[in-house]
Amino acid sequence: MSILHNCISKKELKNHILLNRKPRLILSFYKYFYIKEPKNFRDEIYKNFFEYNILGRVYISHEGINAQISIPVNMYSVFKKFLYQFNPVLNGLRINKTFNINNTNAFWILSVKLKKYIVNDGIKDPLFKFKNVGKYINAEQVNLMLNNKDTIFVDMRNSYEYKIGHFPNAVEIKSKTFREQLKNVIKVMNYDKKKNIVMYCTGGIRCEKATSWMIFNGFKNIYHIEGGIIGYVNEAKKKRLPILFKGSNFVFDNRMSEKISKDIMSVCNQCRQPSDNYVNCAFNLCHLLFIQCGNCAINFKHCCSLNCMKSI
């Protein structure tokens, strides 16, 4: 029988990856579409991804697929061919590539999980149907609209993501979860229903659903960035356009963030000096996600407080 789940400890897998320094691509992709039998879909994805030595996390539900993965550079063409042929809906799917091509330690394991939703929106309104979405805009249009006084950019990421990097003057919808954001964004933006509203997130999956929610709530001129921040930066580089995103892009893997511009938008939680280095507190019973500069990492032994430092 084929292996359908990981049977090796995370520690062993991590050591294996750290010893194997072959270059890997870090990729992300998603697609909202109806999957009739998610478990069968999940098992086939797992078997093939395991064969291609893919690491990372993949969520599958009735509403589609959401993946953040890393893959050996020499397996990318084979993987892409498989994905495009696996299901007709996935043919030509947009795949976002990371900015750093040689990073090997973004993920330690392969995890393919069944979920109720690929993005938990928390929407309870029975009349809402995730159908109509905003208009996609490319990197060139983003740069033009950033300078348009009748356009507002809305960041649909969590506050800790916004803190280390965002588009100039983008509205932060203060929140810790996407569910919380969707509740708040209608109230926050209600005063500007007639303006152009551009929503963005890391790779596009959250803001696509958010645009549908905005349209459902009566907003008319709704846009979102194709491929999210990652898609924008890659396209701007390819077309040699100015990259107007400031700071770093938070990522949900062991790297924590990717530097996009030289701007440092945030400060160390402890000494308040400029820093955008996210870490988890070294005290395992705390494990708080926070920003810590290099000096404080030494002084506090990678902990968020003196109490945690004394506890390890």
UniProtKB/TrEMBL annotation:
Q: Which CDD domains match?
A: RHOD_YceA (cd01518)
Supply the EC number(s): 1.14.-.-
- Keyword Oxidoreductase applies: yes
Q: Where is the Rhodanese domain?
A: 147-237
Kindly report, in one word, the top-level EC class recorded for this enzyme: oxidoreductase
The record, for PROSITE patterns, names: RHODANESE_3 (PS50206)
GO molecular function terms listed in the Swiss-Prot or TrEMBL record: oxidoreductase activity, acting on paired donors, with incorporation or reduction of molecular oxygen; transferase activity
This protein's UniProt keywords:
Oxidoreductase, Transferase, tRNA processing
For the keyword Oxidoreductase, the answer is yes
Give an example GO biological process.
tRNA modification
Q: Which reaction does it catalyse?
A: uridine(34) in tRNA + AH2 + O2 = 5-hydroxyuridine(34) in tRNA + A + H2O
* UniProt-listed HAMAP family: TrhO (MF_00469)
- Give the family this protein belongs to, as stated in its UniProt record: Belongs to the TrhO family.
Q: What does this protein do?
A: Catalyzes oxygen-dependent 5-hydroxyuridine (ho5U) modification at position 34 in tRNAs, the first step in 5-carboxymethoxyuridine (cmo5U) biosynthesis. May be part of an alternate pathway, which is able to bypass cmo5U biogenesis in a subset of tRNAs under aerobic conditions.
Q: What is this protein called?
A: tRNA uridine(34) hydroxylase
Whose protein is this, by species?
Answer: Buchnera aphidicola
